Amino acid sequence: MTDLKPGAARGVITPTIGGWAHRDVHDDLYAKALVLEEGGVGVAIVLCDLGSVTKADTEPAKELAEAITGIPKEHILIAATHTHYTPWGATAANTAGSTFSGLPVASPTP
Known about the structure:
The structure is a single chain. This protein has one domain. The chain has two helices and six strands, in the order βββββαβα. It has helices at about 55-70, 90-100, and strands at about 5-10, 15, 20, 30-40, 40-50, 75-80. The longest helix has 15 residues, at about 55-70. It is elongated and about 45 Å long.
């Protein structure tokens, strides 16, 4: 019998608009990750406080996560919590490329 290894991380993804951080942010937006591994097989579930995410947003992040963690991108789920308290439309499109950059990497504990 193998042991289930969990890992978790959270990173702030509150965007900056026009180069300035929002000064009137009530609550930051987060990306939260849960990583599980058992028998050498890993999976990752990432939930982002965003209105939505697209394949164009998530595919590069999944490829980077695969390169860093070794978890196949097919075993990584990235989804949005669907909050309406986040940028939408052109503003979201302008920040989407940086939304997933700089997040901490969650990996199973030994």
